[in-house]
Amino acid sequence: MTKNTPKNTPKNEPLRKAKRRIGWLKDRRLQLTLGFALFFAAFYLLLAFTSYLFTAKADQSVVEAIDNTGVIEAGDEVENWLGIYGALLSYRFIFRWMGLGAFFLVPLLLHTAVDLIFRVRLFAFKRTFLLFLFLAFWFSYLLGYLAVTLPEGNYFTLIAGGVGYELARWTHALIGWGTPLWLALCFIVFAIYFWNITSVDWKRWRIVKRMVDAQTTHPVPPPTPSLNDSEEEEEEEVDKEEAEVSRLLYEDEKKIEEEIEKMGIKLLRIGEEEEEEHEESNEISNTTDAQSLRAVVDEEDDDDANNKEERADEATSIALSVDETQKKQASKDTPLTVEVVNTTKAPSVSSVVNDVASDIEDEEAEAVPAVGSLDFAYDPRLELSRYQMPPTSLLDAAPAESVQVTREELEANKDKIVETLGHYGIGIESIKATIGPTVTLYELVPKAGVRISKIKSLEDDIALSLSALGIRIIAPIPGKGTIGIEVPNKKRELVALRPILESEQFRNTKYALPIAFGKTVTNEIFMVDLAKMPHLLIAGATGQGKSVGLNVILASLLYKKHPAELKFVLVDPKKVELTLYNKIERHFLAKLPNEEEAIITDTSKVINTLYSLCIEMDTRYDLLKKAGCRNIKEYNKKFLERRLNPENGHRFMPYIVLIIDELADLMMTAGKEVEQPIARLAQLARAIGIHLVVATQRPSVNVITGIIKANFPARLSFRVTSKVDSRTILDTGGAEQLVGMGDMLFSMGADLVRVQCAFIDTHEVEALCNFIGEQRGYASAYLLPEYVGESGENEVGEVDLSERDAFFEEAARIVVMHQQGSTSLLQRRLKIGYNRAGRIIDQLEQAGIVGPFEGSKAREVLIPDEYALEQLLNELNKKHA
Ligand SMILES: Nc1ncnc2c1ncn2[C@@H]1O[C@H](COP(=O)(O)OP(=O)(O)OP(=O)(O)O)[C@@H](O)[C@H]1O
């Protein structure tokens, strides 16, 4: 509360006045003056007190007779190094008051001086002052006791101090030889309170002893707090001490473990396995980088030793051969250079998409904090806290040998490009080749004056002349003034999923729903966040890699998410594609209540599921509204912080990803019935964490209708059969030029990126699903809200108002008050199940309080206010009394 109090409230007025009054104390000049004064005072006292130790006896009579002799005379007589004042101060502080404890004044003064001069606090003043004060009295007491008990005229009478001497005399008279015991007790009690000692732990002493022993090999700070420690320092000290204790214990434990492991037994701590994998994958990702570097280009069968030289030769030979080509073209005699790019470093088209994504990436970090990071927060993973993320070793390793594009191939393609363009009167300044896994990108800088639109218009002719399948012309390459020509490699490289999932980029991603699709033309890992897309439309003719693509999506998400955070709704009209995922039903799948199978293969059930998702969406929106949150991320965060009460219907919301493997099938059989809920979900579901991935073989306009297309900004196309299909899915040609086997174009907004989809084989998917499926799961799949269709036993006509639900009237009032005829509203308000709420809604409809069922929308409320409702209820009661 105080934190939020505005600064200039009347409450603060006295404080401000007080501050103004002492404001002059903040004058640095004054502070410095005072600081130096105190510094010299401390030094003066130190010398005076030290001198007192030697001159006390001689000076005592002089000081005591000062009133009679006068200051000057006394000063002449006194032996203290600091004159009469040195003698006087020492006499007062040491003899009269505190004895040797007066020396403690010196560090206190010095501390204040240093603070004022250098603004540095050497130790916590209050605490140290308290300690010194006690020690001063205690020493004085002890010395006083010695002075009392030793023969008269002993030296201790001079250094014990009046206070200690008197105290000692008093206790000695009372308890005699018991005084030392009393003194010891005083010290112990002070120590207990001062250092807040709550237990005397002999084990700790053993550990401390071990630590002292260990100090010979590991120099560590002393385990006991030093007298000068401030509170913070002391805490630090304790921390250090504890860390050291645990380190020593850990070292012992480690030795034992090493011994056990020497015997061939492997020890694993909970959570350690994952770390191990990370380490392992670190190594692997390094190799991957090395591999991709190797895959880059130039050296074909070079000997390691001659690598560098040969590369140089190669560059020359490429340049030469271009010159020769150039020579052939009589009209163009500008020399050309060809640079073969190390692809891992080359800037890429995909970076545009990735950059945009990473811009917003920071905003939306992981929705769910990691296990163990929540002291008091709710942990959604707790129920399956032992769940282990699948290791990447379940997947096949990348092929040992990387496929390389030969120098001859590069040269031949280049010559052809230059020649072909030459035929059309297009001069080239330079060419750069970037070799990707499937295609090589030749980046051309046209000669000044060549219009890019001209090259674009000649696209087909150039492709024909190059007579190679899969030529795609990018004119210009976005963000650059160059023209790109993608030519498929003769031998392509298989992009395995494993090294991609093991890459730093994937492992460290902050994307909420990361999908690592594969590699771009420039060999960069292409990764997107499904949560941002927020839905994905996939097209591709049969056999071009769609199913593999879907498996890559599923696998990427399964490798990143805990079952508590993500649920899939799988629709597989082809009935065979997604069956393997049955095994993870109780971990990752969602289904309608009372359904046997989680994976939906029946069209009629798809409709129910889509409407059920719409209900889930509406419910989630209601909850978000109630919680005052804008999106699922905010909502879940609030929920995890226990700021939302589950009693009010709040719950942790996992992401839901709906995957439809074949939309064409559904559209043919159910048409509008599926189109409507899909469009609705696509329009609205992004904020509440429901994301759609819809794939189709036939990207024709009657499958991908305008309304669906408009709501799927992110589209992905494998090879399609015609330019028209390509236009339907991507709004541009190009997908018909792809070379199949996972070669794809990803479009989001204005960006179009060519990506080689990673490959995951069926047995890898199986291994992954087995690994997850064999672990403990939830009791059942995640249950979606029950959807009661319009037809069947729940017809309103059958509702009998004489058997109204006990909650009927209350429900009617809620509905009228909110002017919203929604089942979920009743569920939450009345804390009843979906079925009962559904029955009540039907009764309300029968009674004419709400209108008929309107799909996933809330029903219209026909009664305008509570007055009208009370009248209606009275009539009903009379009628069915
Ligand atoms: N990313 C890839 N890398 C290498 N090969 C691939 C890739 N994707 C697919 N293939 C090859 O293409 C074949 C067909 O792929 P997939 O089954 O995914 O096609 P599809 O588009 O789903 O076909 P359908 O629609 O008939 O099911 C695979 O068996 C595989 O040999």
UniProtKB/TrEMBL annotation:
This is S-DNA-T family DNA segregation ATPase FtsK/SpoIIIE. The lineage of its organism: Bacteria, Pseudomonadati, Bacteroidota, Cytophagia, Cytophagales. It is a multi-pass membrane protein. GO terms for biological process: cell division; chromosome segregation. Its main location: membrane. Belongs to the FtsK/SpoIIIE/SftA family. InterPro entries: FtsK/SpoIIIE/SftA, FtsK_4TM, FtsK_alpha, FtsK_dom, Ftsk_gamma, MFS_trans_sf, P-loop_NTPase, WH-like_DNA-bd_sf. SMART domains: Ftsk_gamma (SM00843). It comes from Thermonema lapsum.
